[in-house]
Design a protein that fits this description.
This protein is mainly alpha-helical. It is built from nine helices and no strands. It has one domain. 82% of the residues lie in helices and 0% in strands.
Length: 168
């Protein structure tokens, strides 16, 4: 265990040599909240993080939109994915939480996308936009706005926590 600080220092040095690659690995596997925090850890600036998070979130749109489209048309990649999509959409359509956000229209898509909580973010907001039948361009603009707003919220929360730790 005496070598643990040395291992952490080596790991941190390796990440600092390619912080953008590290950011995208975290972003595409765990999500925006953790990727922005990890980007801060490896020394990326807030402006870089907002831009990188936006690019990472925009990369998610074609994947999830295609997945939902294939599930909707019945051209399923597998019957398990199709059943899962059907159950998820049916589950959401009968929840008050979903009804509230769907009732707010585009604002609901932006809010769900910007919320840094598990279960919110791009996956949920793309599904919400899809079930609300938003057209592609306006939907992408709302998702884009939510992505930037969510990154700013995460950075603000991280800054507040950092200031609170320094004061104590």
């Amino acid at each position: 265990m005496e070598h643990l600080p040395t291992c952490i220092e080596r790991f941190h040095a390796a990440l600092q040599s390619s912080p953008v690659l590290f950011f995208f690995i975290v972003h595409l596997t765990i999500g925006r909240t953790f990727s922005v925090l990890a980007g801060l850890w490896v020394g990326l600036s807030p402006v870089e993080l907002i831009g990188l998070a936006w690019v990472g979130d925009m990369m998610n749109i074609p994947f999830f939109a295609t997945l939902y489209e294939l599930g909707h048309r019945g051209l399923r990649l597998s019957s398990a994915i199709g059943r899962w999509l059907d159950r998820t959409i049916a589950y959401l359509e009968h929840r008050r939480f979903y009804e509230r956000f769907a009732g707010t229209g585009a604002l609901g898509v932006v809010v769900i996308c910007a919320t840094p909580m598990w279960g919110c973010g791009m996956w949920s907001s793309i599904l919400l936009a899809r079930t609300m039948r938003l057209k592609r361009l306006p939907g992408t603009l709302y998702l884009s706005l939510g992505s930037v707003a969510g990154s700013i919220i995460i950075l603000a929360l991280a800054g507040a926590v950092q200031m609170a730790l320094k004061l104590s």
